[in-house]
């Protein structure tokens, strides 16, 4: 068999059965080998940033990696933004990058690049295959690196001639490393702290799942400790009937206010909170300086099991799980389409066990509180702040969980970064409903202009500033953009229109887009 076939068979033998790909000349033998290795499904994406974002969404939902296939250095460069988000999410991804044939590497060809340098910016593991005889071992070790807790992007660089050369038949199997329970002394130390006023737990990593939240809720009921959640956790269980921790706010001022009386913070698979950006005259570190920080579970450890062990250590096993008081959900009227109206519709219409890919950006502060009252669901927020995650992550989640409805909540500006994901959704008939929050502005940049103090300077020195925020000239027509890729689409300009269109979309299968024109 060829080296490409050996690579694919090793991936399949180790549980990697999906590859999001945008191949080029150096990867043609990999593409041809897909016909002989039917245990790996190739999924064509029209842009490499869709490949990497889809692999991120897939890995977040299943906890095991998909592969990507990218073309040389420029192809990897196009994928870097969403690989950055995956790195911050600790998502396992097997990132395969084709390279020129080894004899061609001596020349400075037009597509020659330092692929290893590109890869190291987002990868925890990088390996170049040097000989076709090591193809199987290299593939297996790359899978092992990807799934080693807490998970990471593992990049395998494959020269083209090693794909077409004859390879040995070895397809090594790996043993998957397991997350370890933290040492008992950490659990006992945390149990002692929870009984002291001013102690809080901060949940991150994998500990915003339903099991972990239930344990955290019992700890709150038994000890009175505050339970906080990292806003950039990769997957958050939300909705009615689940314990809802307070999320550390995006902007530093409300975050500083929330954390002002925390004297002892216990970290669970995360780090002490810092602000997204540095601002003039505002601290970046969000805890009071006198606060102490301890760790219950490192990112590589099993934070969920640690929380459950902490429940037992605190005698909280029979404690009730606190439930938030129901917020009134306003009736959907026929008024203008506002963020509150969208939130109300989501709370009323979202089906149980839906998956939300959340790239609402500035709209999230209004909409997310409504989601706490929706049917139980999982939400996949932006983890690394890199724009263009929402649509590809939604597609990858739909591949991972074809029996669950997926909803992409996407801002119009950020949606344009990876618009090509709509084409893959249609091609694969994915059950994804995309809601575009169309305000015709980079709203978050307008907020940040004010926060950084740049707005006043810009208004005095440069009257063009509004033109760098306004994306309504010419207006983006998402109905036509979606139709151009074969996706059914509609436009809602009132609350009643949006409610009717979203309700219909929840009752049907298949890809669909709703352009929500905000008042």
Tally the helices: what do you get? 20
Mean pLDDT: 93
Q: Cα distance, first to last residue?
A: 60 Å
Largest sheet: 7 strands, mixed
Structural class: alpha/beta
Order of strands across the biggest sheet? 9-14-13-15-16-18-17
Low-confidence stretches: none
Strand content: 15-25%
How many DSSP-defined strands? Answer: 18
| Radius of gyration from the alpha-carbon trace, in angstroms | 24 Å
Kindly state the percentage of residues in helix.
25-40%
How would you sum up the global shape?
globular
Describe the structure.
- There is one protein chain.
- The chain has 519 residues and is α/β, with parallel strands linked by helices.
- Helices cover 37% and strands 18% of the residues.
- The protein contains 20 helices and 18 strands.
- It has helices at residues 3-13, 28-33, 48-62, 72-89, 115-120, 135-147, 160-164, 184-194, 210-223, 252-259, 303-313, 339-349, 364-371, 390-400, 412-415, 421-427, 443-451, 454-461, 478-483, 495-506; strands at residues 18-21, 41-44, 66-71, 93-99, 125-128, 153-159, 199-203, 226-229, 236-238, 246-247, 264-268, 292-297, 354-359, 377-381, 406-411, 432-438, 489-492, 512-517.
- A seven-stranded mixed β-sheet has the order 9-14-13-15-16-18-17, sandwiched between helices. A six-stranded parallel β-sheet has the order 2-1-3-4-6-5, with helices on both faces.
- Strand 7 (199-203), helix 9 and strand 8 (226-229) form a beta-alpha-beta unit.
- Helix 1 (3-13) runs parallel beside helix 6.
- The protein is globular.
- It starts with a helix and ends with a strand.
